[in-house]
Amino acid sequence: MPVSRYYDVKRDEKGERYLEPYVTGFLLLRLPLLNKGTAFTEEERRALGLEGLLPPHVNTLEEQKERVYRRYRLIASPLEKHIYLRHLQDRNEVLFYALLVDHLEEMLPILYTPTVGEAVREFSHIYRYPRGFTASTRNIDRVEEALANVPLEEVRLIVATDSSAILGIGDQGYGGMAIAIGKLTLYTAVGGVGPDKTLPVELDVGTDREDLLNDPLYLGVRHKRLRGEAYYQFLDRFVEAVRKRYPKALIQWEDFAKEAAFAVLERYRKVVPSFNDDIQGTGAVALAGVLSACRLKGERLSEQVVVVYGAGAGGIGVAWALVEGMKREGLSEEEAKARVLVLDSRGLLVEGRNMEAYKRPFAQRRERLRDWRFSGEYPNLLETIQNARATVLLGLSGQGGSFTEPVARAMLENTPRPVIFPLSNPTSASEALPDDLIYWTEGRALVAAGSPFPPVGYKGRTIPVGQGNNAFIFPGLGLGAVLARAREVTDGMVLEAAYALYDLTQERFPDLLYPPVRHLREVSPYVAARVMKKALEEGVAEEERIQGLSFPELYAFVRSRFWEPRYLPYRPAPVI
Ligand SMILES: O=C([O-])CC(=O)C(=O)O
Ligand SMILES: [Mg+2]
Question: Is 378 among the catalytic positions?
Answer without folding.
Answer: no
